[in-house]
Structures are given as structure tokens and as C-alpha cells.
Amino acid sequence: MRNILVIFFRSSGLKREDYFITTKVWNTDQGYDKTLKAFEASLKKLKLDYIDLYLVHWPKVDTFFETWKALERLYDKGLVRAIGVSNFEAHHLDRLMTKANVLPAVDQLESHPHFPNSLLHRYLEELHIVHQAWSPLGRATVLKEPVLKKIGKKYGKTPAQVVLRWHIQNDVSIIPKSEKPERIRENAAIYDFELTREEMLLIKQLNRGERVSHAPDVVYVRTEPEEF
Ligand SMILES: NC(=O)c1ccc[n+]([C@@H]2O[C@H](COP(=O)([O-])OP(=O)(O)OC[C@H]3O[C@@H](n4cnc5c(N)ncnc54)[C@H](OP(=O)(O)O)[C@@H]3O)[C@@H](O)[C@H]2O)c1
Fold it and tell me: The pTM is what?
């Protein structure tokens, strides 16, 4: 995947400042020295001088502060434009803030209509941390909901576009993934319509508290690294 990205950026003619690259430190690379080493390896593989946003993939209890200190160092050195976290819940952020010099700019979380993470969203808003949704389409599981099709019909949009628009109107940043160029284009074409308050509420009612992946503390309480 990284090689494809490198080829794409080299051949696109785009300037470095025209694109935004996020990557993260994986669970098995956490800790101060290991994070710095992993970051260097990422820069090398991506053939870049800096990363726009560097994230901690998951809170890990044993290397919790060391990993963040390493991100702060990278930030101070100008090697990353912003630093953030992923899968951090309120109690992880509270703990981080006891020692952090730089607050995370972003918290990347599982969020979609079946699991909107609304309470945490409100907490992030108070802290001025951007809520970014991973699996914003619930890995396509939410797209079968009839209400999405019904709303989409009104605007000539697909269920995926309706869900992505719903996120944007909730001030949630989105990173939908598709391997199909036509769907990538479809997922980007969400800025020419606006859901009504009633439609936003109808989608809100799809909340079932149902995740498509692991809860953050499943990893946090482990001391042995595990791949997620
Ligand atoms: N921070 C973390 O811990 C974490 C965890 C999980 C994921 N992520 C990241 O979050 C991003 C997205 O998450 P995700 O891939 O799990 O879930 P997602 O974006 O919610 O869903 C991806 C699935 O939806 C399908 N899809 C995409 N656009 C569609 C459309 N317009 N219509 C119908 N189906 C569509 C894709 O199939 P096709 O490819 O066939 O189109 C794929 O099966 C990824 O970049 C991933 O790396 C982060």
C-alpha cells in the first residue's frame, strides 16, 4: 500500500502541501525509543520529510506516557504538523492530560450510525479535539438501513453519501475507505446537499450501541502487544 502511495504522489504532479498524510504508531512499536524508530521507518517508506498528522493507534497501559512523549518530541522538531490519538476514551484523555505538554489535535474513533460515540464527541468538543470517525460506514453494515435509502432518494444520493453527510453535519471528520475508484468519487460528492434536522434525528435513531470492532479497553488493559 505504501509503495502505491509513493508512486501515486510522485506521478500526480501534486505539491507536498496539496495533500495531507496521516499515519500512526502501531501497538507493537509503542514506547519512547521504539516510537521514534517506527516514525523514522515510516518517513523512509513514504519518502517524505514530514507527516501531517501522526497518531497513537491505541492506548496501551504499559507505554502510555512514553509513546506520547515521543510524539511531542516529533512535533517539537517539526517532523509532524499535528499529533493525535486513536481509540482514546475520556478516561484515557484525562490520564494523558496529567502529563502531556501538547494536547491531541485529533481522536480517531469507531463512529457510525450504529455506534455514533456521541458522549465522547461532546467531551472532545469541550477539549477542542477533532473527532475523526474510523469505519464511518460501519464497514458497510449500516448501508442496509431502509431509512438511509429513503433519505438518499430525495437528494439523488446513495446511503453511503447520506451517512457521510450526517457525520459532516455532526462536526465529525471522516476517513471512509474504498478500493473502488467510483466509490471514492461517490464518497467525496457530499458537499452539494444538506440533511434537515428531522433527517439528522432519524439517522440518530439508528444508534444500537453496536461496534464493528474492539472496544478501546480490550487493548488498553493488556500488557502484551496484540495486533489490532
Ligand atoms: N484507528 C483505528 O483503530 C482504525 C480501525 C479500523 C479502521 N481504521 C481506518 O478507518 C478507515 C475506514 O474504515 P473501514 O475500512 O474499517 O470502514 P468503512 O470505511 O466504514 O467501510 C469500508 C467498507 O465499505 C465499503 N464502501 C466504501 N464506500 C462505499 C460506498 N460508497 N458504497 C458501498 N460500500 C462502500 C468498502 O467496500 P469497497 O472497498 O469494496 O468499496 C468497504 O467494504 C480505514 O482507512 C481504516 O484504516 C482505523
Answer: 0.95
